[in-house]
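Q: Sequence in, structure out?
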Amino acid sequence: MSRMEADSESRAWRKAQRSMADGNCVEVRPVNGGIAVRDSKNPGGYVLAYSAPSWRAFTLAAQQGHYDAHPQ
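A: Exactly. Output:
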């Protein structure tokens, strides 16, 4: 994972499909064979960049419920 400055001139950002109504969400876009992620409330801020395999592993784990909150 690396940090890089946001480049607003590149491909369009997509907001997460299940974003919260209060604006707590992220936006993603493809970059250099990987995925860039940013905070939608701070589009001019820093961006996290992930390799394609890392992003696939994360999204698969999320789909399988590995990051779901479990009441205690």
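Residues 22 and 41 are 10 Å apart (CA to CA).
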